[in-house]
Amino acid sequence: MIQEGESKPEDLTRFKLPPGVNERLTDLLDKQDTETGLTAPERCEAEGLVDLAEPLTYLSLKAKAAA
Question: pLDDT of 40-52, one tens digit each?
Answer without folding.
Answer: 999 999 999 999 9
